[in-house]
Amino acid sequence: MWDNVPLLRSITGALVAFSALAVLYGAAYYAVHLPGSFPLHSVQLNAAPQRVAAEDVLQVVRGEVSGNFFTVDIERLRQSLEKLPWVRSVSIRREFPDRLVLALEEHRALARWNDVALVNTYGEVFVAPSEEPLPEFIGQDGDSFEVAQRYGEFRQQLAALNLSVAQLALSPRHAWRVILNNGMTLELGREEMQQRLARFVVAYPYSLAERAESVRYVDLRYRNGFALGSADIKSG
Question: Does 236 reside within a domain?
Answer without folding.
Answer: no
